[in-house]
Amino acid sequence: MTSLIDSPASAANLVEGVRAAFSKGMTRPLAWRKHQLERMIAMLEENEDAFLEALAHDLGKPRPEGFITDIAFVISEIELMLKNMKKWNKPERVPTPLVSMPAKSVRIPEPLGVVLVIAPWNYPVQLLLVPAAGALAAGNAVVMKPSEVSSATSEVLTRLVPRYLDNDAIAIVEGGVAETTALLEQRFDHIFYTGNGTVGRIVMTAAAKHLTPVTLELGGKSPVVIDESANVKVAARRIAWGKWLNAGQTCVAPDYVLVHRNVETQFVDALRTTLREFYGNDPHTSSDYGRIVSPQHFERLSAMLTDGQVIFGGETVASERYIAPTVLSDVRLDSRLMTEEIFGPLLPIIPVGDVQAAVRFITSRPHPLALYVFAENDRAIDTVIENTTAGGVTVNGTILHLTSPHLPFGGVGESGMGAYHGKSGVRIFQHMKPVLKRGTKIDPSLAYPPYTEKKIKLFRKIL
């Protein structure tokens, strides 16, 4: 169902309706779950043009980029869930300790109930539908809240979801802060939020009132370390791709580069060459480069241009929300550029003396969502991995660790809590209910009083 929420009362009615469907057992059969996921794929495939046009409107997103990140990625995740749904939802046999014998022990995957998924604007299809699909595959009812900032995509989603998915157990709510606030006043069984830390704290505070578990997919300043041994040309290409994908509006985009000072000039030159190869001499005219999502974000990013020395880039066009791919040096470490997540096409370059200095820089700051290290020297790679903490790591690349469904994706500390994708994206919405089953044909008296010396000796041997 699509619902317009204008008060906490209407939000309560919406959630109660969805909960009633869950309470009736509607979402528990695997056949129902499978059908919802198949219909979600059909929605994406049959309306691909509508989604890509909306993404282009909201973010200036090139069609190939929109297809890969917001259509194909989602379909791939759902197809993996469909392939493994029966296996992932079977009870898991686990060992039983001797003291409990004769018995057998199992862990039974059980849906949590009603899940609220709050999505951001930067990948507005992927970051709404992937967690929603996991919640459905786990057997839950779902309330979806797309971002009002990506308004065209939100409109497409709120129009299509009720046409393709079960309206009794699945709802989508369009709107902004007022609607989200009304939803957060309700009792859910799990809340999945993707966005920034400020709103993450609001979500967690609201959830605490009902003791609702939360998954917070946040962000932070994801660093890149370039060792003296790195293949600089390859590093420049892979960093440029990860940084300027979606015009830098990616939670795991490289946020700043810690480069060994002996290869700093070589790296900057390679980066400049790479950008010409990617977007031509004028990225403003490139059909492969996106735009900033809103005037407010454009103004925020434009203000950061004064926090360092622009090496190249820096051009802006306010009427088109365009900011060129920009590389900066001599950045002030206490500036917004280095204390806030950039979430845009600005890349600060900071020279360091060695890998150890890079590690010290990283560990003196909150744990990032992602960390990238470029090196041919295995010791340098191990030094970074073993002495830093991050939500995920890609070595000699950027972003790609999150594309593997076998690597749980999530943050740590201020970059988030909980992880999803693949099997983890289903398990996070389930309670693994422990069950121990005993028979009655054998009932040893050892466990019962009176506790004789003989029994106590046996206890000491088996416990």
What radius of gyration results from the CA coordinates?
25 Å
The global form is: globular
With strands numbered from the N-terminus, the spatial order across the biggest sheet is 1-6-5-4-7-8-19
How large a portion of the residues is in β-strands, by DSSP E?
15-25%
Number of beta-strand segments: 21
- Biggest β-sheet: count, sense, barrel? 7 strands, mixed
Mean of residue pLDDT values? 96
Low-confidence stretches: none
Q: What is the end-to-end distance?
A: 55 Å
What's the helix count? 16
Helix content: 40-55%
Structural class: alpha/beta
Give keywords.
alpha/beta; 16 helices; 463 residues; 7-stranded mixed sheet
Description:
By secondary structure, the protein is an alpha/beta fold. The chain is 42% helix and 19% strand. The protein has 16 helices and 21 strands. It has helices at residues 8-23, 30-46, 48-59, 63-88, 126-137, 151-164, 177-184, 197-208, 232-244, 264-279, 295-304, 336-339, 355-363, 378-387, 424-427, 453-462; strands at 2-3, 92-94, 103-111, 114-118, 141-145, 170-173, 190-194, 214-217, 223-226, 256-260, 309-312, 316-317, 322-323, 326-329, 346-352, 370-374, 392-395, 409-410, 416-417, 419-420, 430-438. A seven-stranded mixed beta sheet has the order 1-6-5-4-7-8-19, with helices on both faces. It has a seven-stranded mixed beta sheet with strand order 11-14-15-10-9-16-17, sandwiched between helices. A three-stranded antiparallel beta sheet has the order 2-3-21, with no helix packed on it. A hairpin with an 8-residue loop joins β2 and β3. α2 (30-46) runs antiparallel to α5. The radius of gyration is 25 Å and the shape is globular. The model has no long low-confidence stretch (mean pLDDT 96).
